[in-house]
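The protein record quoted in full:

***
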Amino acid sequence: MAIKVCSLSSGSSGNCQYIGTDRTRILVDAGFSGKKTEGLLSTIGVMADTIDYILVTHEHIDHVRGAGVLSRRYDIPILANKNTWIHMSKTIGEIKDKNIKIIDSNKDLLLEDLGIHSFKIYHDAIEPVGYIIYYENTKISIMTDTGWVDNNMKDKIKGSDLYLMESNHDVEMLKTGRYPWPLKKRVMSKEGHLSNMDAGETLSEVLSGNGEIVLLGHLSRENNTPSLAKETVRECLESYGLDTYEDIELDLTYRDRPTKLYTL
């Protein structure tokens, strides 16, 4: 028995993560059109009509663009907290009552053979959350779109077998880049996005070096590069004594294509 994980895409143009077992298949966010999401799923051999649930982290368009279409087309329940439902309803359109599932942040729920825990993160949305998914003895943590990681968040995700961790920007690239100053302030704020260094420092506090998989997510096209994100995080982890070639598997997500399908 195994659980499979794929980041179908991660970035400001759209976010969608696939997690599936032999019994249950879920998406965390659906930030692309229905057609594009179907295409992304097909690249990993998954048909959209086999998705059982869509979990939403927050109401921003790059996380919910296709949620309503997919729900209507394939009769898929959407799970989100009450505040997120209120603020995304106009964006996703009309949903059948039976497919509107309101969940409580910081509470546990069971979706077939998957345990789900949502937890507070820091972003300029109404009630944004990260998700922890449990399957048998496997733990997966998804945490993007947060400008800060507090000790409670670190405690929650610690001990995961796979982390999808935001590594949005290089601070110097952001400061000297062409974004207007108000947008730079937003990205660097507590309710913005994690920098590469933030990601490395957070990971250094939660990783144990027991073969965990780390996927760096939501990389900025303007203020980061894949190689810079990976090397900054690698150097940070190695400064804390973690061997990023032997102790963990450090990899990237992409804005325009899926990662490989990880089997845990």
Q: What stands out?
A: The chain has a mean pLDDT of 97. The chain is about 30% helix and 25% strand. The CA atoms of residues 105 and 212 lie 26 Å apart.
